[in-house]
Model the fold of this input.
Amino acid sequence: MRDAIVAAAHRIAPHVRRTPVLPLAPGDAGLTGPTFLKLESLQHAGSFKPRGAFNRMLAARVPASGVIAASGGNHGLAVAYAAGVLGHHAEVFVPEISSPVKVRRLRELGATVHVTGRDYADARAAMRDRQAVTGALDVHAYDQAEILAGQGTTAREFESQVDALDTVLVAVGGGGLIGGISAWFEGRVRVVGVEPVSACALSAALAAGEPVDVDVAGVAADSLGARRVGGEMFPLARRYVERVVLVDDEAILAAQRRLWRDFRIVAEPGGSAAFAALLSGGYRPGARERVGVLVCGGNCDPAMIV
Amino acid sequence: MRDAIVAAAHRIAPHVRRTPVLPLAPGDAGLTGPTFLKLESLQHAGSFKPRGAFNRMLAARVPASGVIAASGGNHGLAVAYAAGVLGHHAEVFVPEISSPVKVRRLRELGATVHVTGRDYADARAAMRDRQAVTGALDVHAYDQAEILAGQGTTAREFESQVDALDTVLVAVGGGGLIGGISAWFEGRVRVVGVEPVSACALSAALAAGEPVDVDVAGVAADSLGARRVGGEMFPLARRYVERVVLVDDEAILAAQRRLWRDFRIVAEPGGSAAFAALLSGGYRPGARERVGVLVCGGNCDPAMIV
Done:
């Protein structure tokens, strides 16, 4: 899998941003140890998702009917963005809980958008019916090898930007990002997953010994609200994810406000979840532990923050 | 002056953030050449200003009455922030045009705030009267050697982050930032000033051969609306600023929207002005010219952007 991540990195390099890292100063946000925020919210389309989307499209033969995807929003934006750059038609299915900011931007990017169903899983089912008709390339939001390899490039890049990371905190929805990151680090760096209490598909899967369905709700459901984690990521998570920390909506929104107030960073709730694990004390690093935090998405209405 | 900037960098290092640089990908925002955004909007207090404020306070003996400043808002926030960290009382005078976001945050930071006068110059006059009574340390918004040296650390840091910069675009208000940056580069890197058409104190000074008063107005007046540039910066600007580009309010707001839409960066109007010079074609770099853009402040209500 590391080879696949290196290949993905070369494949997508012309199309993705090398996103910056903000090293926190001691005392920032009440934190004492060395902490590094990787601002993947500044990636094209406002989240890490174009890494996987570009990798999937560039590794496959895309038919004339183009590409098709279901998404809570961020993956759809990435697919629409990547399809636009590569000259493919894109059709995207999003559930009704998607942020209006995401739906508007999807249309601006030229995708054919269908808003349907209560959550990601409903949108995915509608997308599958449509894909059976058109034959468009299915670009999965998290459960394909090329998607994991693309998202894994985030870890490779982060490691090249910060010396001697001990730990990386990663928010988990369907698990494409943490799957790719785990595969890159292979236990060399502690990988900690962070899930909303109300959307904890990975915790449930680890407890059950296999991916199982959970109910999803809460402020981060539009980005972290997969009902079950992917089969591709699960063995990687079982082997390499050291633990999963749960954060409640209050902690997520507090982290989002803190990112804006103290750093002028706009992160959506799902993009604030990993930082919330640190601020809430859900994850307590050692005194000298070098902690990387993925701020993985910024697609929200900033008026909602303040 | 370069020695003073090195000394300032060491003095303030424990207190300021090394702000990240976002390298744009080819085609981002329609730009073809290598472009690097330095996100000084992610600095403490939401702008570059703490660099100068910390340097001034750490280089001086601060009396028991503390520090006092007049500001369009960003400098006041920096003074309040630095005073809080260093344990001094801060009194800040801001004009009525200051963004409510800035005034609210000033109070949260524990400063005594006076909202008075039409623009920065009025607030400064009121501050001088008060300072004569209290004897507090006057931390000028732009016209003191320690302030210029502190702001100049931005250039030193930028140069260490990006190889072979050819050009740096810098928004100009009273000129503390561009003064310090010019002093650091001493002509080795092309320094281009960017002023709003409706607040062009440096253009007027260069035309007149000395700092002169101008009227100030427009969307960026609360951060770039100094009536005249400082006497400390003027000889540096005359010697080392290659040119000054003017941008109108429409171009500034378009750049602000673009920074949010394409990059999820929140910049205030003044913080968007340098990028506006590039987007509007006011400054047209050569094909391979490596252009640094200072995104110098992010203190606005993000709800105003979208």
The interface with chain B takes residues 14-26, 28, 39, 41-42, 44, 46, 101, 105, 260-266, 298-299, 301-303, 305-306 of chain A (CB under 8 Å). The two ends of chain A are 41 Å apart (CA to CA). The longest helix of chain A spans residues 145-161. Chain A has two domains: 2-48+144-304, 50-138.
